[in-house]
Amino acid sequence: MSVAVVVAAAMFAGVIAYGLFGGADFGSGFYDLTAGSGPRAAELRTMVDHSIGPVWEANHVWLIYILVMWWTGFPTAFSAAMTTLFIPMMLALLGIVLRGAGFAFRKYAETYAQARLFGAIFAGSSLITPFFLGAVAGGIASGRVPRGGYGDQFGSWLNPTSMVGGCLAVATSAFLAGVFLTADAARGGRTDLAERLRARTLAVGVLAGLIVFAGLYPIVRDAPTLSHGLRDRGLPLLAMAAVAGTATLVLIFRRRYRVARVFAATAVAAVVTGWGVGQYPWILVDQQTINEAAGAPATMAGLLFVVALAVVFILPAFAYLLWLTQSERWSET
Amino acid sequence: MVLGEAVTVLASGDRPPGLLPAREQMAMSLGFHIILSCFGVALPAMILVMHRRGIVANDPTALRLAKRWSKASAVLFAIGAVSGTVLSFEMGLLWPGLMRRFGDVLGLPFGFEGLSFFTEAIFLGIYLYGWGRMPPRLHLAMLVPMAVSGVVGTFCVVAVNSWMNAPTGFQIRDGEVTDIDPWAAMFNPLAWLQFLHMWLGAFMLVGLVVSGVYAAGLLRGRDDAHHRLGFMVPFVFASIASVVQPVVGHVLGLQVGDRQPAKLAAFELALHSEPGPAPLRLGGFLTDGAVRWALTIPRIGSIIARGSFDAPVPGLDTIARSDWPPVNITHCSFQVMVGIGTLLAAAAALFWIARRLGGDPLNNRWYLRFAVIAGPLAVICLEAGWVATEVGRQPWAVWQVLRTADAASWSSAIWWSYIGVLVVYVGMAVGGFVVLRSMARRWRAGDEDLPSPYGPAVADPTPAEPEPVR
Question: Which of A216, B57, B344, B468 is 20 to 30 A removed from A70 (C-alpha atoms)?
Fold first, then answer.
């Protein structure tokens, strides 16, 4: 295994982490958006705020980590993707900006009218970003990013694989968030809220499962290289996703929320990893392999040092933050 | 010389249609983010001092100020985080020609910057939500990694910018970038000085903006311990930074003179090389090939720009016309930076001298008025300094290696993305302003907790008491 593949794996670990933590973060916008109005909606929104408030900025930095690893470790592939997928990247960015600002503004809004405006911006834009990032992944995975860059400005993301990727990202994000929010509500003793979230999470979970497995059909025709990899090396991961996803639904149905979180995260991580394993060894499918795109050896070694620092310093700190938010003292609103 | 060869090798000759909007979009989004990143760098240190005083000296006023600042920082850091993300995307969306060739040369410091941003985001989350949920001293300690990561992050980001001014850590052979050493690129000759200059600038800006807020309160007659302490802590930081800054700036300027003669000539509005000692030109414009309306002071140009009594300042006539930066913008913004910076340093010194002599400038309404506008002045100063160094580097993205035209994207959609970014940023600035102002207003009214209304106001279920008969 080359150094480049190790760096790519470290970068992809960031993709998985962003899929899980960023995904749960974005997905909570879905419940916020569909909460309606009135005191019950206020209860849900307060909890969304409390659940993601301390972690959203840290969750979000996974994306920065991915971008930095990408442009430093694989600069030609980065610039090819950015010039080709200009429009979906810009739209994903729009979602990130509106969502972060809207969320922070809502927390300190003075009047209900203001809070409603900022809240609608936050919740609406929460769905934009995962959709377009999923579409970006679909464009890369279906071989639509030429190695020289400046590929088809529209066809590169308006295609079957990108649409599957976008819908899949939104659905898995909403599913993860539903499981986490339900668990948070139950832990905080808000049984009514947990019950309402439970019903919606079950519905979202079934839908997400359908999208993941029905989405394989268009991918077979549209992205042969990816679908070959999925059926070959990716098969165990798809099986794992199916089992873990089903287990999550059963556990949610039986109100075993704490354990359900582990299975939900496993299911989503398996789907994301399946994509990565499926397109290996390509970084831009059918165009450029990981080794071809790799930057200078000294830079790759430097990036491994960055990764080592992240493992030693960032992961324990991140775990501490997550542990705090799950502790009893932090669960009171 | 390797660099000279690179000029011919990496130049394509054509100008992409997105060059102008790409530059405008980058300037706007970076000019916006740079102010917020200053708060990310300097505010944790100020909150740390204030919060520590609250706990160690058992001072409730200090503790209340620290708590309020942490709430304001939640809003500012959120805007800073998202506007910083925009810049990460823009590196590739706007400057693919730079990233394709030099991503693995310049990228490593961004890796470390990512880690420090991670650290800051994690401990910010803990600190903001830790009020009342953690042991006080442990809670206070959460500010330390935030303050440290602000320093590291500043160094890393500025290291990339200084590399663009003093490119090192690679060779160019046959049009290929080879012999890449990312560590040499990160620790390029200008990195430490440019970092120090930016870091001090951040403390000047934040210190003066925050102390200006409390100076305004003092002016309106709210003369109490709360306002005096709220003024003093940031002002001490800003004073030290303001007084040291001219020295650092001067040393950095000397380096620029040695490395980037075109930039220096534009700073000094030196059209023709003059044998030393060169004069200093205050104000002035370059029109129709001549300098007009400049106040020329003989001799001291050499001292200021070259650190010597008789060294010449090489003029723009020694530089090919195609390699000139936009001279007037560079000159004007440079002089605005130096002028305001000097004024702020003098005002800070005046404050402490007056106190030494037994006076209290906080009782002087004219000083307070100045303290209020010092905040906006510091913002203008920082922006002007940034414009001077960035525009002064043109037409190069990487000094004498890669022209900005060859770094920019060929996408034709950048005018649209520029307009979109502009609209969103205006909205974000307005939203942030409205929220921060309403926070201040509610604090003045005595409301400390600032609960957000997540639902419509519930009508008071108890009927109103009848008015007592007087």
Answer: A216
